[in-house]
Amino acid sequence: MNREPLIAVVDDEALTRTWLGEILQGAGYEVATGASGQDAVRLVQEVGPAVMLLDLRLPDAEGIEVLRRCREIDHDLVVIIVTAYGEIDTAVRAVKAGAYDFLEKSVDPADLLITVEKGVETRRLRHDVAVLREQHRWQFANVELVGRSRAIRDILQTVEKLARTESATVLMLGESGTGKDLVARAIHARSGRRDRPFLEINCTALPEHLVESELFGHERGAFTDARERKKGLVELADGGTLFLDEIGDMPAGAQVKLLRFLEDSRFRRVGGTVDIRVDVRVIAATNRDLDRAVADETFRGDLYYRLKVVPLRIPPLRDRPEDVAPLALYFVERLARDLNRNAPSLTPDAIRMLEAYPWPGNVRELRNVFERALILEDADEIRPEHLPPEIRGLRRPESGEGAVGLPPEGLCMEAVERDLIQQAVSRTGGNVSRAAKLLGLSRGALRYRLEKYQLSVPPS
Question: For the chain, which domains are there?
């Protein structure tokens, strides 16, 4: 069985230690106590508490100094300062020095347990962040893939297999912003072609009449302004990899010529009469439904089936929410490095909101959110208020109304809460952890409400 989280209570007043300890033990926590700064350091060294309730005034040391010493030993330790009346200014200084929160000694037991529960969750998150940093990144030369979902692991296995077969054509399917170009670069970086060129063309970025010339080059005088011979990307990528992004929008004329090249690795420059042979691997990608495009005769069926030797689907981010946290951490660290600043941490509430958001712009949108946050915010942590309104579940009020409309006849708050909990549990198939994230609650808080409303959870 897993041990309940250990909470350390350090206070020189025996009555306070006893009172706080009884409340915590009654809530199911293990408790260890101490009466001095030396005791606090010893507890961190010997028993490793998840959370410490620390008095500001101890007989042998100042609380802020004890806080610093304890966090030097365990950087992930969550310290909640317990203050006497009138010490709020000092408590605020302690928070700036690294304390998680502060409470007055006359705190309501319910508020104490809520703060401790959030502290325990923060400790777990800090541990998870360390795991995410170490175990959920895969390096392919200068390309890094990030995630922990089963979908990402399946993609990684496919990348490894494709890297061993250096000629098979790959067709990647997926919504815009899912990282298809990054997977293409990973395949190239892992293959025997890694020391040869990786060239990319976006088929929607060029005028239709220039796509064929850009791909296959042209001879001098082939058309107006063709004043000299030009090699195309296919020729320049000889020995390497050619990535054709948004191939579903390739013009019909270029489709014909690409099909011929894929069949026998030969092509002619525009206006040329001599066949040129090269050794190039082609990886194509699209966010279009090519089956429908073939049916509508807007994309050649023979080219589609020639490209789809190895189809590789990249799922949208909303279908793999477990990848949001490692991706968020990765972007925060990389962007902070680019901006020459320390990387801020992410609060549990912020991560819950990020994981509950559907990400219509996929990974690209996630990156943009953190680029904006790091440019505009100087805080040491990214909190919910630093995230865009749509991620926080807000909409602009209309006609002076609030974000949620109140019916004229009023409503029953408990009935609304009960209904929302039922929806979340149903949507996640009985997965309490994911349901809690959808509702912005901790797992324990959701368990409490399930018992309060006598709601059953279907088998996950």
Answer: 6-134 (3.40.50.2300), 137-315 (3.40.50.300), 318-386 (1.10.8.60), 413-452 (1.10.10.60)
Q: What is the DSSP letter of 247?
A: G
| Range list of β-strands (E), 84-212 | 101-104, 137-140, 143-146, 170-173, 198-202
Roughly what angle, to the nearest 10 degrees, separates helices 14-26 and 109-135? 70
Q: Is 10 helix (H, G, I), strand (E, B) or coil?
A: strand
Weakest mean pLDDT among 31-45, 57-71, 86-100, 303-317 = 86-100
Q: In this structure, what token pair is assigned to residue 57?
A: 């005034």
Which stretches does DSSP call E strand in 370-460? Answer: 381-382
pLDDT in tens, 84-113: 756 667 777 787 778 888 888 888 898 899
Assigned token pair, 336:
């902070």
Strand partners, 32: 8
Residues 6+ apart with CB under 8 A from 221: 271
Q: For 194-206, what is each residue's pLDDT tens digit?
A: 999 999 999 888 7
Quote the CA–CA distance of 110 and 131 in Å, as a whole number: 32
Greatest extent of the chain over all pairs of C-alpha atoms, in Å:
96
Q: What is the pLDDT of residues 385-429, one digit of tens each?
A: 888 888 887 544 444 444 455 666 666 777 788 888 888 888 887
Beta bridge partners of 221: none
